[in-house]
Amino acid sequence: MELALASATDIVLRTKELLINGTAFDPFVLDCLEDCLGLYLGTVMMLVDSVGVFLSEHYPNAKMLLSAAMSGDK
Length: 74
Fold this sequence. Notes:
Layout: H1 2-21, H2 27-55, H3 59-71
Helix pairs in contact: 1-2, 2-3
């Protein structure tokens, strides 16, 4: 879970950089990057929640949250 959280966080940061520095991109690409950013922000939040639930030893709930994060169900 920690590795997935680190990877998702890195993707969020890189996507934000592309949006800030990507003035050469056409509008379609910028829209795609914004959609990607929104999805990954939701995933990061779900992963943070799943780690917290796991650490509180509520394993079935952690599994449910982790599955939702990995499948994109927000």
